[in-house]
Write a structure and sequence with these properties.
The protein has helices spanning 2-21, 26-70, 73-76, 81-92, 163-166, 171-180, 185-228, 236-250, and strands at 133-134, 151-152, 260-271, 274-283, 293-294, 308-319, 332-340. With 358 residues, it is an alpha+beta fold. The protein has two domains: 27-168, no CATH class; 210-353, no CATH class. Strands 5-4-3-6-7 form a five-stranded antiparallel beta sheet. 19% of the residues are buried. Residues 155-169 have low confidence and may be disordered.
């Protein structure tokens, strides 16, 4: 009886020693340790990318809605609140599938009451779109929402519980194991993944710079129109200053005339959808020919009495990726244009171009 028990204990000791020395299944164990953190990071990256893209889509919709008000299409067409909302909804689909319900007052307090007033010329009008974005919780406690109903107001957080770190070997021990290992599994996996990660990093960096510059181009186009339409008469020096303001908005990105073209023109509408250039000025490019035809979008090509005038701002930027992994093209052309109505008079005179009357 005692001998049988001793043999059994010796056999168990041998099995435990064999189990301790065995390296089979090491990759599966390592994957089991890393998988929760990897999945949490993957979900965090995907949700954050979609979240940022959705926020930018909402911002672009606010800009487009503001343009409808600035050009007078909302006021002249007597657009109602529901019609205005219906014109915004197609801009944000399919990312946004329902009407926003969260609203703020001027002090930043939630009021849940909309105020619709397109205003009149000379007034400051604020277009504000707010949306509750539904999020999905990930492993290891990853939560992106900051509202009680599991939604976010367009902020990301990745939290790793302390217990997950206690079962992992220390950094020094991991380094010793890596140096002593002759299987090279970790090195091979790293060599396979590293080029893909590097390409993704450099491509994301170039794409991020392109998006940032494009948003500045849109802001600069709005600015040159909003400044020009305040004049009753402009001189060449005025237009040089207005076009130069675009370079200030584009800072800290390059804004020399070799990459940036700014064109400001006045369009004269003599009949329905019949528009020609009254005068034009360009910095870094060629101005539009006087009398050349211009296509006006939507109802901008008509007015209550002819002739009527519009200020037409155009910007073009030649973006060169730093690493070249974002696109196969050497340069990417980023451009934007905007029509605006003169604010201080029927038209803006430009005596240098021979435009001395409306």
């Amino acid at each position: 009886m005692v001998r049988d028990l001793a043999r059994y204990l010796r056999r168990c000791a041998r099995e435990l020693a064999h189990f301790r020395r065995s390296q089979q299944g090491a990759t599966a164990v390592e994957f089991a340790l890393i998988a929760p953190a990897f999945l949490a990071m993957l979900i965090a990256v995907l949700q954050t990318c979609v979240f940022v893209f959705a926020q930018q889509t909402l911002q672009n919709a606010a800009v487009q809605a503001g343009r409808l008000i600035m050009t007078g299409q909302v006021q002249n067409g007597n657009v109602t609140q529901s019609q205005f909302l219906n014109s915004i909804c197609p801009m944000i689909r399919p990312l946004f599938t329902s009407t926003p319900q969260l609203n703020y007052d001027g002090q930043g307090q939630v009021t849940n009451s909309w105020s619709y007033d397109p205003g009149t010329p000379g007034q400051v009008v604020i277009v504000r779109l707010i949306y509750q974005w539904s999020v999905v919780s990930g492993p290891l406690g990853f939560v992106l929402s900051n509202l009680p109903n599991n939604s976010a107001e367009m902020m990301g957080d990745l939290r790793l519980p302390g217990g997950a770190l206690l079962i992992m070997p220390g950094p020094a021990r991991l380094c010793r194991r890596f140096v002593a290992s002759t299987r090279a599994i970790a090195a091979i996996e790293f060599a396979i993944v590293m080029p893909v990660l590097a390409l993704m990093f450099f491509g994301t960096f170039d794409a991020g710079r392109a998006i940032a510059i494009y948003m500045k181009i849109r802001s600069a186009t709005f600015a040159i129109d909003a400044i020009t339409n305040q004049y009753t008469t402009v001189q060449t020096s005025d237009l040089q200053s207005i076009a130069g303001a675009a370079a200030v908005i584009l800072a800290p990105y390059p804004s020399s005339t070799s990459v940036l073209t700014v064109t400001v023109s006045q369009v004269k509408i003599t009949a329905a959808n019949t528009a020609t250039v009254s005068w034009s000025y360009s910095l870094g490019g060629s101005a539009r020919s006087r009398g050349s035809a211009v296509t006006t979008p939507g109802t901008l090509g008509t007015c209550s009495s002819y002739p009527c005038y519009l200020i037409f701002g155009e910007m073009s930027y030649q973006y060169t990726p730093m690493f070249g992994f974002f696109t196969t093209a050497a340069n990417i052309t980023l451009s934007d244009n905007l029509f605006a109505t003169p604010r201080s008079s029927k038209c803006v005179l430009y005596p240098t171009a021979g435009v001395n009357s409306c």
